[in-house]
TrEMBL record:
Gene3D superfamilies: 1.10.8.60, Homeodomain-like (1.10.10.60), P-loop containing nucleotide triphosphate hydrolases (3.40.50.300)
GO molecular function, one term: ATP binding
Protein name: Nif-specific regulatory protein
Lineage of origin: Bacteria, Pseudomonadati, Pseudomonadota, Alphaproteobacteria, Rhodobacterales
Its biological purpose: Required for activation of most nif operons, which are directly involved in nitrogen fixation.
Annotated source species: Paracoccus solventivorans
InterPro entries the UniProt entry points to: AAA+_ATPase, AAA_lid_NorR, Homeodomain-like_sf, HTH_Fis, P-loop_NTPase, Sigma_54_int, Sigma_54_int_dom_ATP-bd_1, Sigma_54_int_dom_ATP-bd_2
Amino acid sequence: MRQLALRAGKVLDRQISVILQGETGTGKEYVARAMHDASRRRGSFVAINCAALPEALIESELFGYVPNAFTGAHTRGKKGLIREAHGGTLFLDEIGDMPLGLQARLLRVLSEREVLPVGATRAEPVDIRVISATHRDLAGLVAQGQFRQDLLYRLNGLVLEIPPARARADLEWLIERIAAATDGQPCFSPEAMALLLCYDWPGNVREIINLCELVSAMYDGACVLPDHLPGAIADRTATTRLPASTVSEDDLLQLLVEHGGNVSAAARAAKIDRSTFYRRLRKSKIGTVA
């Protein structure tokens, strides 16, 4: 995550579009908001879920409309979400689910930096920074004819891969930070934390937030013990943990290299305890682990 933050920091105040790629629930909108807040852009942060917009309302919601542009239109017209983001950041969540027809209109906005409201005859200039997010393979969608290649080239100035929770070297810090931001600020015993670090978190950051809210409500400030954790976590931990003897020393060393020397992350990937990981490395005399 540190490298991701450094790369994001290079483009904070540049007119470079960014795609955040990662599994559902990894916190892509959080990263987008953090980039907006850290930049010098003082306009609004406007988030749009491209998969949730009703197709019949997409154009009027995004581009706005002039007064009485169509039957049922407001007499004062509507500004539209893109113009709401003027001077700020437009966050397009689930960009891979945007209909092809709308992709063509969005392409014009990005290339011309102007919006043509529904029913208008003159376009209006917009100053927006675009950050998109997706869990889908956009290049694969292009190959299937489901996503415009020219739009992809407009969006992918910088592509940042948001790692899943299970692959994060700072997973313990992440859990503790989310817990500290949760109403009631639950704390986890070392034994409970060890179970959390072995869990594969299929729901990613969203699942960690849900857990912290649950234990805070259920145990009201008490230290969270292993017995307090939902059964799904303990059960899945038990089924995914591998016997330490089944992982070779060469595999352990390779995992350590892949995770940049971070023993905690490598041990999680091997699904063995950190102490066992240390012991196996020292016993095999592969090398000294700092």
